């Protein structure tokens, strides 16, 4: 049986992925401009270089603004101008504060742009007030697109707890909705140890209103362990996190 709470929670997440961070960065306004750029040719840059290039690009944008830096009053339109042209890997370097060289306001701005990139990636406009309604008309299609989107992000982002949760929750919601609507359910099982445990925990929480929900941020292992749906799966998640760390070369800034 499909859980309405689970589906509604996912829909709410889709609608607020960018708006929460955008609100923190000072408002919406303006027409969305692509935050991504075509992939660069040649050898792939290491993440430290990506982060340094992002720092340089932001500083150049500030210089073009007469030295005015982004802060809590910078609105979404301005962040699009400051961060415009960055691909998602560069935005993630800013959001994750790679190298410890980005301010909290810059991280919030990058988070908002990543949210808009996600929405575009699944075929929705983050600034369309009807985006949630559009998704509700064919949610299985959008959730399948979400699974594919999360698989397409950078290796660095795939080392984060937020990615593990988003990847798992997108898959389980796709499967539930497709089954409810009588559609063939495609297999998108992940080999990531933590994704597999999160998916099991989310599945086990279905039908229990006290557990079938997510709260707060998911930036660390502790954030994940404290989720209502994680109850009873804490040791499995810790083990999976350790396995993922060993198999994938560690996590950024002592975070998953």
Q: Fraction of residues in helices?
A: 55-70%
Strand content: under 5%
Overall number of strands: 0
Order of helices and strands: HHHHHHHHHHHH
Q: Could you describe the largest sheet, including whether it forms a barrel?
A: none
Could you characterize the architecture of this molecule?
Helix 1 runs antiparallel to helix 7. It contains twelve helices and no strands. The protein has two domains: 1-17 and 128-256, no CATH class; 18-125, no CATH class. It is mainly alpha-helical and 256 residues long. The longest helix has 20 residues, at 161-180. It has helices at residues 4-16, 19-24, 47-64, 76-83, 88-95, 104-121, 131-137, 139-152, 161-180, 193-205, 221-225, 234-248. The model is unreliable at 1-41 (pLDDT under 50).
Summed up, what is this model?
This protein is an all-alpha fold.
Mind sketching the topology for me?
Layout: H1 4-16, H2 19-24, H3 47-64, H4 76-83, H5 88-95, H6 104-121, H7 131-137, H8 139-152, H9 161-180, H10 193-205, H11 221-225, H12 234-248
Helix pairs in contact: 1-7, 3-5, 4-6, 5-6, 8-9, 9-10, 10-12
Characteristics:
mainly alpha, single chain, 57% helix
